[in-house]
Amino acid sequence: EPWLLRVLGSLGRAVATADGGVLWDQLADEDRDESIRELHAEVADAGGVVVGRNGTVILADLPTALHVKVDGPVEDRIAHVCATLGVDEHVARSRQAREDAVRAEMSLRLMGWDPRHNDRFDLVVNTTQLSHDQAVALIVAAQRLKSA
Question: Is 69:53 a contact under the CB 8 Å cutoff?
C-alpha cells in the first residue's frame, strides 16, 4: 500500500534524524506525530496489518486492533537463523543481540515504551515452536475472537 510506505518512510526519517540536535529532534517529533496520525486514520478507516512493535502504541486506543508480538527464546531464535539462513552461530548471536537492542532503543526513544515487556500485547506467539501456517492461523483466530 502506498500510504503504508509513506508512513514507514516518515518514521524512518524520524529515526535517522533523532541524534541531530534540538532542531532535528523537533523535526523528528513532528514527522513522527504526522506519520502516526496518518497511520491511525488509514487503519481505523480501512483496516490492515501494521508490522512493527510501535504499532502497539500507535493503535493502542483502537478497540479492534490486535497487538501481536512474534517472538521466541533467544537460543531458539539463534538456532533458527543458523538453520534457515546458513549463518554461523557467532554471527547469528551477534546480529540477534544488536537487532534486539536497536529495536528496543528505537521504541524507547520514539514512542516512550519498551517492547521487550509483553504487557501491551494481546498475544505473544512463539514462532520457534510453530510453523508459519500455524502462527498465521493462531493470529487470525485471535483477531476474529477479539473483533467478535
Answer: yes
